[in-house]
Structures are given as C-alpha cells and as structure tokens.
User: What shape does this take?
Amino acid sequence: MITTTELLEQYLLIVAEPVHGESEESVSLLHRTDWVKIMIVRNAQSSESCSIEVEITLPPCIIEPLKNDVDSHNRTARQFIEDTISHFEYLLRLEDAGLALGILSAEGIWSASLEVGSCPAEEFFEALIPPSDS
Assistant: This one.
C-alpha cells in the first residue's frame, strides 16, 4: 500500500518535469490500483497549475450464483460488494477533501478532480490514498 509521503514525492517529481510534446495537455499517472487511477493533468500553457484526477472503475468480475459451494461464492460476491462500497465511500472522502465529483454511468466511471495552483499540503495526499484492494 502506498503512503502519503510516497504520493507527495511522486507528485513533486511529476510536476517538476516539463510538459513534453506538441499536445496541449500532459497526463501522468500518480498511482494505480485495480479499482483506482490517480492522474496529474497539466496544461502546457499554464505550468503553474495542474489538475488532480481520480477515476474509479469496477474491475472485471463475474460471480454467478451456483447451487453447489454456495458459501464460497457468497463470500466472494460479498467481498466484491464490500470493496465497491469502500471505493464509493472513498469518493465521498475525496469530496470532503475539496475534489469535485463526476459520474459517467454509461462507461462505469466515477471520478473526482481538483485544480491546484501550488503543491497541496501533505494531509491532502492522505485523503488521496485509496482503499486497499482485497
């Protein structure tokens, strides 16, 4: 599991790099799990500010109810549901930390984003730490 300090250090490395290429926008991966992708989006025209984007998508999962070994399947299904709930609660914590929420239901993407002009405090990066994957 990633720590607050590791997230902050990775953020500082990303924003210290110049925006390369001819595109107007640079997207760098800050952290990724099976459920969560945290990105830093920078504009070539405005290198002083950036956007922190968090996307949550459900990982591929098929758990069909079976007549035999019901307990095992129920445990697996229950764990997936509990992980889904913990990631939705994570989104609400991100909103509490000042990020704006977004939903693309057709694509199955839930997101949170924040424009920052300077490096956020280390406590902010604590809020970015996603739930651990089971």
